[in-house]
Amino acid sequence: MSPNLCLLTVVPTPVRRRCALHYILLHLLGYKLSMDDLKSFRQVDSLTPGHPESSHTDGIEVTTGPLGQGISNAVGLAAAQAHMAATFNKEGFDLITNHTYAFLGDGCLQEGVASETCSLAGHLQLGNLIALYDDNHITIDGETDVSFTEDVVKRFEAYGWHVQVVKDGDNNLESIYNAIVEAQKVKDKPSLIKVHTTIGFGSAKQGTESVHGSPLKADDIVNIKKKFGFDPEQKFHVPDEVYATYNAIGVRGAEAEAKWDALLAQYAQKHPEEHKELTRRIRGDLPEGWEKKLPVYKPGEKNAASRKYSEIVLQAISAGIPELVGGSADLTGSNLTRVKEAVDFQPPSTKLGSYAGRYFRYGVREHGMGAIMNGLSAYGGIIPFGGTFLNFVSYAAGAVRLSALSQHHVLWVATHDSIGLGEDGPTHQPIETAIHLRAIPNLHFWRPADGNETSAAYLFALQAKGTPSVLSLSRQTLPNLENSTIEHAVKGGYVLHDVEGENLNIVSTGSEVQIAVAAAELLAKEGVKTRVISLPCWEVFDAQPKEYQLQVFRSGAPYLSLEAYTTVGWQKYSHEQYGLAAWGASGPYDKVYEKFGITGPNIAAVGKKVAEFYQKRGGEVISPILHAI
Amino acid sequence: MSPNLCLLTVVPTPVRRRCALHYILLHLLGYKLSMDDLKSFRQVDSLTPGHPESSHTDGIEVTTGPLGQGISNAVGLAAAQAHMAATFNKEGFDLITNHTYAFLGDGCLQEGVASETCSLAGHLQLGNLIALYDDNHITIDGETDVSFTEDVVKRFEAYGWHVQVVKDGDNNLESIYNAIVEAQKVKDKPSLIKVHTTIGFGSAKQGTESVHGSPLKADDIVNIKKKFGFDPEQKFHVPDEVYATYNAIGVRGAEAEAKWDALLAQYAQKHPEEHKELTRRIRGDLPEGWEKKLPVYKPGEKNAASRKYSEIVLQAISAGIPELVGGSADLTGSNLTRVKEAVDFQPPSTKLGSYAGRYFRYGVREHGMGAIMNGLSAYGGIIPFGGTFLNFVSYAAGAVRLSALSQHHVLWVATHDSIGLGEDGPTHQPIETAIHLRAIPNLHFWRPADGNETSAAYLFALQAKGTPSVLSLSRQTLPNLENSTIEHAVKGGYVLHDVEGENLNIVSTGSEVQIAVAAAELLAKEGVKTRVISLPCWEVFDAQPKEYQLQVFRSGAPYLSLEAYTTVGWQKYSHEQYGLAAWGASGPYDKVYEKFGITGPNIAAVGKKVAEFYQKRGGEVISPILHAI
Ligand SMILES: [Ca+2]
Ligand SMILES: [Ca+2]
Q1: Is B145–A352 a contact, with Cβ atoms under 8 angstroms apart?
Q2: Rounded CA gap, B345 and A146, in Å?
Q3: Same domain, A453 and A346
Q4: How far apart are CA B55 and CA B65, in angstroms?
Q5: Does residue A297 share a domain with residue A247?
Q6: pLDDT score, position A110
Q7: Is A214 on the interface with B (CB under 8 A)?
Q8: In chain numbering, where does the site feature Important for catalytic activity fall (chains A, B) (predicted)?
Q9: CB-CB: which of B116, B120, B330 is closest to A141?
């Protein structure tokens, strides 16, 4: 059973000293972190890296590090708790009741992503979220006076939070305890407890920024140890009574867990269906046979935009995968992310939905959405997806890379994915976004060409436990292509249109594949035999057996890539590249494609030039993916 | 003379209807925007794209579009006004006095970047900034009730803003006027005027989200025109009295400009030096001979981290380039961005600096810093630079791409640029960042290998009017290399170590170039003759004459790329790639490099394998940059 569901959730903030504290607490509480692990703090291959990583160290629930992510993950964890509680708790079975605790500093509060998520947390009335704000008045640059003089208490009240202030966090530990107890009583608001502290308390340097990054001096450490009653000669030493105290907490935790396990066993008796469902979801297993509902298309049938194909998938599978919890950053009608029967995830008092609702209204908060989805995923039992325009996934880059690093199973439904969005123009047309996302390790960037490829993208993305995916989807209509199948597309790349003795290969993705096919037809008439390769997901294709990869990218004729983005990166799969040299343009999408020469006739002309160049050059044209290393 | 300096600055927000309104106002006020331009709204190659672009349309001062950027640019414009006023105004010469006006909606306020910049604007007491918040209670997803229920008035008061509420913005235009007059009187706080309005006022659909994106129906338009006293039959028609009214405003503006020009002429008499300096800065010309101060190094001399070389450059040139206005997102001591004699840009009442100060304390607000720098640049007379870790430039991706699209002359001092940052670990170590930034059109990503290359990066970046640059700098020490010179490096790429009859070429950047050199030395001992190419800036290298490019990347032997990032993208310049397959690791930097095999001996072993593979394959090895198209 995931401890996330039964124990307190603690989200650390990134600052080094909190991170060390976190590791020490995990050690004292009996997590798999030895004294030797603590000694190798910030060393290569240790369990105690410079910033905690959830997939790496026992007891680390989310990867924080970059500022603002921790508190935002906490909002996601608290939302997940509210959702799972509303879905699975029954009379007499308060199974899912945990609080989420987050520790944050001034830096966290300055980051925009924290503003986004804390505003939403207030709206969502996440009563089980308790954030302790360590107000030590110091950041790396010195006094917060130099840049951060806002009234944090008032700001959080404006967000709809319950706010308390603890005046002497250095000495009056009881007042911190009491504030937490008060916060626990507030059920309809998240709580912020602002605790005035002195950075480096006890040190000769207390209250200055020099304590932030630099280690204390040896004599200062001796003094601090004496001051707090420790033996100054001993290092990495935990007095027995400390171990005993923490051990007692561990015992209490084990008792709580045993009690919870017993409750779950009773739940299994009384509510066998719900129990089965809950445990399945926590294991992260998808319901059996869900994939049979995926739409399948025949060539030319029911042509639609790939954002529409995506909507059809969601409509088909949502009922069967209750852990699919979606939303949009205020672009629901454009992203087509809300299925007909959806109920909004909302506090019941708003009368706009319920916590059992599976549709999140994220507001215009892309970065916040990304960080909240990471929290939802970390909690367990939920597979979150979120919609926005592909271009605005960039706003969330900080959270997206952490999804990948932390192995969160998160989906982005990224519509309006190229110059094909048309009139909104260059400010909204991604150029660099695809290669940016392709370059993030453990992130799958899918750009399906039609209906079957869209179904394939969902099939793969939903099965890819531990890997986030971005689905790049068109605004404009795309035909269902000859030879595109789910089985082909889940390989990440395949030969869509094959010929023998080819003079040219065109490799393409998404909305440009149909243009490659049109070009190939025109070229055939001119005697230039052209294969077309569809490559909806580079990362997945790269994981295929080398033999298969070399069947697709066989040697013999040059490869020309075609994509309505920058050509940067396409050299990996091609000898020649066609794409956008700079920014897009505002206009009806077909006119914009024409302006940039991404049409069947022009690509045929370019392809002919490429084929002739390599014929003239002579020698074997070797596959672009054949390498020495 | 830049009108930015003498007229009111108006920053539009991105929503379509405001954008149309903006274009219409520009037309009525006599900017270069004809009725035909208005008719081709959102058409290819028109002057009226779907979202306004500053480099594209007369009278557009910043490129907004993506939500949150407009108000954040406005903060930058207002800060620029405060700085230029403090620098150039003299007794009797209130030359620089403009207000900055911004219009924003609910969406803008939800974006984190707006929270960051509005918090800072409050801290900075930017009294000449006036923001009108169009509170129409509607976003694309419907009522703001679904996701945005915070108390905006209270939040902005918490930021230290002066806030007013206009209750009937639909009918009581006088109350809006009066609120603006009140706001103008407040000199020590930015002002927010919350104006309650009805979206689509006058339409049958008024007050609903359907007015947001969809056009009104024909009969509805007829009714609205009648309601407001226009001829319902006429389209794209401006009654003469409307032209006359706006023409009078244009005349008033021209009079104000003439008066201002006269004041400037007197200023030239009384303060000739300041006048020369002000006009030079507004033209965007650098002071003559500034580049002579750039540090030059001999091989092996004064080895340092490239962030330190950068500090030495800044220290050397800052006094000579007063328009260089820098800062850091709370990493001053790490980014090394503050020169010794710097004065902070602060409201005088804080006693921490003055508005004439040239060093910005941005706080932990990377995205906000990016958007503010765009505003500073747009104002004229300022070349802003900002420091953070390279990894956190990703937080600011939304603003960075707009720098490039809008041709803002902005510099990012992006330190701690790889796994070389060491202990902070994978959450802070960029992998995908370099290729992301390289893929943004009109953005120069520089990764200098040593002192001379760092000087070259500043030389080029400061001369590249209309192009933003990111300088990717190391935390760890880098030796000054044999054959690295400013003259070589400003070409973006050059042969650092040449041999005849090479068996291998290694192409590298930044901190890995020294490792490539070490590998080449080891390889030479084994009879593998190896050239080393340093490629500090792809974009600049690509702009060199093809002949030069082919001298550097001549055919004959394979090219192996070496960079401590993802290898994605390097296929453009190499046949084989060495880099990071996934995430970095936390540890002392030399141990981390060792873990990933980025050492002289290992790269020599890899290089040998590559050379042998291509020798065995036979045939000519053709330059990776030789193409058909
Ligand atoms: Ca702090
Ligand atoms: Ca609105």
Answers
A1: yes
A2: 10
A3: yes
A4: 14
A5: no
A6: 97
A7: no
A8: 212
A9: B330
How many residues make up chain A in this entry? 629
Cα–Cα distance measured from residue B353 to residue B362, given in angstroms and rounded to the nearest whole number: 14
Report, as an integer, the average pLDDT of B71-98: 97
Q: Which residues are CB-contacts of B504 (< 8 A; sequence separation ≥ 6)?
A: B523, B528, B529, B530, B531, B557, B558, B560, B607, B610, B611
CA distance A250 to chain B (A): 29
The structure tokens 């689509």 sit at: B200
Both A78 and A122 in a single domain?
A: yes
Residues in chain A closer than 8 A to B602 (CB atoms)? none
Active site residue B526: no
Active-site choice (B111, B311, B323, B366): B366
Each residue of B588-619: pLDDT tens digit? Answer: 999 999 999 999 999 999 999 999 999 999 88
Shortest CA gap A368–chain B (Å): 8
* Residue corresponding to tokens 């319901």: A287
**Cβ pair A367:B629 closer than 8 A:** no
Q: Give me the phi and psi of B131, to 5 degrees please.
A: -110, 130
Cβ contacts of B14 on chain A, cutoff 8 Å = 427
Judge if B406 and B334 occupy the same domain: yes
Within this chain, do residues A39 and A187 fall inside the same structural domain, yes or no? yes
DSSP sequence for B446-500: E---SHHHHHHHHHHHHH-TT--EEEE--SSEEPPPTT--HHHHTTS-EEEE--S
* Residue A166 is assigned to a structural domain of this protein: yes
ipTM summary value: 0.95
Give the pairing type, strands A530-534 and A504-508. parallel
Q: How confident is the model at residue A142 (pLDDT cuts 50, 70, 90)?
A: confident
* Residue B278 counted as domain residue: no
pLDDT at A204: 86
Share of chain A above pLDDT 70, in %: 97
Residue type at A344 in one-letter notation: D
H/E run at residue B385? strand B383-389
For the segment A139-161, the average pLDDT, to the nearest whole number, is 91
Task: Give the CATH number of the domain where residue A508 resides.
Answer: 3.40.50.920
Do residues B342 and B468 share a domain?
Answer: yes
Residues 493-512 of B with CB under 8 A from A: none
Total-model pTM: 0.96
A66 is in an annotated binding site: yes
Distance from CA of B468 to the nearest CA of A (A): 15
Q: How many domains does chain A fold into?
A: 3
From the CA of A511, how far away is ligand 2's center (Å)?
32
Q: What is the pLDDT of residue A206?
A: 87
Ligand closest to A139 (CA) is: 1
Please report, for residues A11, A184, A506, the alpha-carbon distance to residue A260 in angstroms, rounded to integers and kept in the order given.
Answer: 22, 20, 58
Asked whether A365 and A117 are in contact (CB, 8 A), the reply is: yes
* Boundary-marking domain end, from A448, A478, A508: A478
Quick one: A232 and A294 in the same domain?
no
In a domain, A279, yes or no: no
Which of B459, B478, B497 is the last residue in one of the domains? B478
Grade residue A332 by pLDDT with cuts at 50, 70 and 90.
very high
Interface test with A, best of B137, B542, B586, B596 (most A CBs within 10 A): B586
User: What is the band of A139 on the pLDDT scale with cuts at 50, 70, 90?
Assistant: confident
Q: What is the pLDDT of residues B9-43, one digit of tens each?
A: 444 444 455 688 889 999 999 899 999 999 999 99
- CATH no. for residue B218? 3.40.50.970
**Is the domain of A214 the same as that of A327?**
no
- Among A61, A311, A366, A563, the active-site one is A366
Is B269 a member of any domain? no
Those residues whose beta carbon sits under 5 angstroms from the ion ligand 2 are B 105-106, 136, 138
- Mean per-residue pLDDT for B455-465? 98
Cα separation, A364 vs A369, whole angstroms: 9
Show the domain range for A244. 3-253
